[in-house]
Amino acid sequence: MTLSDGSTVTLNTDTAISVTFTTDERNVSLLKGEAYFDVTHQSNRPFTVAGNVSTTRVVGTRFLVKVMPDEEKVTVLKGLVQVNSQHQQALLHPNEQVQTTPVGLSPIQTQIDNREAAWLNGHLAYHDQTLSQVVKELDRYIPGWVVVTGDNLKGYRISGRFNIAQPQNALDTLAYTLPVNVAHIGPWLTVIRPK
Question: pLDDT tens track of the chain, all 195 residues?
Fold first, then answer.
């Protein structure tokens, strides 16, 4: 979507924002989910994105913000971004990322790749992530709930690329490649359990 200042925001699934622009500042609240921002340069009107535990301030740049229940993640694709959380701040350059929690900021990560922005091109990409992490993300794209039973399954490591337009295919692929069964119990519940 294009905002009144010419900046664009691309929302991932299950995402909500609130926008308040004045003559002096441009404020966006990311209430939940993940969004990509391509901010129009206006040096006299800073652009701020507020999550639950952090605030990201820019003048003109491209970046991602992801709000999760227990943390937030800010990834810079172009330009500079200042992230503030719990009296700490970090200045991020292109291809840098920081995570925030109620405790504060993580160290800046400089080894990020295009997986963070893969959803902008219709894919979810994973490298050596746990089944629990992958299912948590896929659950946003599938109606209802996806539940993993059996604690031993949650630690299985996953690498792959999935089309977000067909999230059920991702679950089918997991069932094919891992020792799990995927059961659809009615239209609103999918259970992943040991074979």
Answer: 999 999 999 999 999 999 999 999 999 999 999 999 999 999 899 999 999 999 999 967 999 999 988 889 999 999 999 999 888 999 999 999 999 988 889 999 997 877 888 999 999 999 999 999 899 889 989 989 999 998 888 889 999 999 999 988 999 999 899 999 999 898 899 999 999
Query: Looking at this protein, which amino acid is placed at residue 175?
Result: A
Q: What are phi and psi of 53, to 5 degrees?
A: -125, 0
Q: Which two tokens stand for residue 53?
A: 């535990």
Do 91 and 75 contact (CB within 8 A), yes or no?
no
CA–CA dist 37, 47 (Å, integer): 10
Widest Cα–Cα separation across the chain: 60
Architecture of domain 122-194 in CATH? 3-Layer(bab) Sandwich (3.55)
Query: Tokens standing for 75?
Result: 């990834």
Task: For residue 12, list its beta bridge partners.
Answer: none
d(CA 62, CA 79): 7
Where are the domain boundaries for CATH 2.60.120.1440 in the chain? 8-105
For 8-105, CATH number? 2.60.120.1440
Q: Which two tokens stand for residue 55?
A: 């605030």
Question: Per the structure block, which two tokens stand in for 19?
Answer: 């926008």
